[in-house]
Amino acid sequence: MNQLSIFCICSPLLISFGILFVGFVAATPEECNVTGGEGIQMCCKHKRELETKEKQEEYENNMKNCFTKYFGDIEDPPADDVKMSLMECVGECFFNASGLLTPDLKLSMEKINSKDDMIDPDPKWKSIDEAAVKTCFDKSVTEGTGSTKCKSGSFQFLKCVLRERFLNCPKDAWTESNECKTYRGVVEKCPNVIPGVA
Predict the structure, then answer these.
(1) How far apart are the C-alpha atoms of 10 and 124, rounded to whole Å?
(2) Signal peptide position in this chain (predicted)?
């Protein structure tokens, strides 16, 4: 598996937010390393309208540029704590490039709420997205203060929103299977696991 695993998740803007660096997630207990098979990406299915090609390319370029900025010159895999610190910086860089941070690099609820492509207008997803943003904003700001470099909480916000969407997936979008049931249990138990939504 290459370093970038792209999950098609929630709104068009979050497609790029969901370029998750699976190899760079913090160390977790063995029971939390159960990633499931390819099918787990289809546990929570989300039909969405794609962003314009130009906007999608902009998001993807922003993410690639931010990833290269912090990981591009690293030849040997860094220690787990360094990886996490770099991931926080990649998240902050991307959120800043996407206009979601204040000039002093703090998460902005006003800017997040003003992004048309942050919250899905589909009624069955809209309330989930709104609740996720509300739940994750304060939590991520607090958690983001631990990094020595990038303290905006952008990466923590992303992780929290993706987990909230997955764990609150509408019934008619959820795949009833033993594989998905097992994987959901892993996500519930393990706060560092970042699930994808297809």
Answers:
(1) 12
(2) 1-27
pLDDT value at position 10?
Answer: 42
CATH of the domain spanning 36-72+79-189, picked from 1.10.238.10, 3.30.70.20, 1.10.238.20, 2.60.120.620: 1.10.238.20
Which residues pair with residue 107 across a beta bridge?
101
What pLDDT does 3 receive?
32
Residue 53, Cβ density class (10 Å: 0-12 exposed, 13-18 middle, ≥19 buried): exposed
The tokens describing 96, both together, are 């800043």
- Which two three-digit tokens encode residue 198? 């297809």
Residue range 123-176, pLDDT digits in tens:
888 899 899 999 999 888 777 666 668 889 898 898 898 899 899 999 999 999
CA-nearest of 80, 38, 43, 15 to 171 is: 43
Q: Assign 3-class secondary structure to 128-181.
A: HHHHHHHHHHHHHHHHHHHCCCCCCCHHHHHHHHHHHHHHCCCHHHECCCHHHH
Residues in the chain: 198
Q: What is the pTM of this model?
A: 0.81
